[in-house]
Amino acid sequence: MCRLFGLTSGTTPVRATFWLLDAPDSLEAQSHRNVDGSGIGFFDSSGAPVLDKQPEPAYRDEEFIREARQAESAAFVAHVRWATAGGRAVQNTHPFAMQGRVMAHNGGFGDLPRLDERLGSYASLVLGDTDSERYFALITQQTQAHGGDVGAGITAAASWIAEHLPVSSLNTIVAAPGELWALRYPAQQALHILERPASSSQSGEKGLHVRSATSSMHAPALDDTPSVVLACEELDGESGWRMLAPGELVHVRPDLSVRSAVVITQPPAQLVPLPAGNPNIDT
Questions:
Q1: Up-side HSE of residue 118: CA atoms within 13 Å toward CB?
Q2: Could you tell me the pTM of the whole model?
Q3: pLDDT tens-digit profile of 135-155?
Q4: Residue 237 Cα distances to 17, 54, 103, 240, angstroms
């Protein structure tokens, strides 16, 4: 299991520096507990995906720290890894990029050879050993099969895995320039959303400032820019956080409007309970 977050400001580039590094228990701090890798995905000025990732904890990864302080984008996907499938290697480190999109996954599932058969020629997109990258390849396959509809691709991919493979969690965030999708499925791991207008901080500090026992964020650039944030935890400092329902898919469009629906109503055919004491079990 891992930690992940997504942030989109629509079409306005912003920095997400404080979220990643400067908070008392930011993703960098969380990486002391999730020690198998760290990565950031975003988009350059031409809309091409940029990945900075290393198979090291964020607190030991100077490149992660440099990129976290300098990256500017309208969408970010960040991840710190606690490996459940695939060893420590850059090709196994989140986020992943395929066909102009960036994805990270929180959870796990088994029987990867069966999924490889399902992928067919799309298995060539998989460079590493993880279930997560295979999940993304299936999303990519199903997106193309559904005429480029990413939401339909995520739904079809997660539904197939839930029906045929043992599953603990398929929580995922997928980003493209100007758009972001997120799925929570099933109910074992939390995923929260905050739709935030500009200048809505309740803390008295400029920009977005949110905090919990395990995560914090302060992004002054978001004082004048609306945004949508997805996180494993509900953070204090702003009202409006909402836990996604099990099976709920969210689509954030370039104008920051949010479409949401429960797209998977059945539980996994083979649910794998998370072990007691798992540090990434959220409520």
A1: 22
A2: 0.83
A3: 999 999 999 999 999 999 999
A4: 18, 31, 27, 10
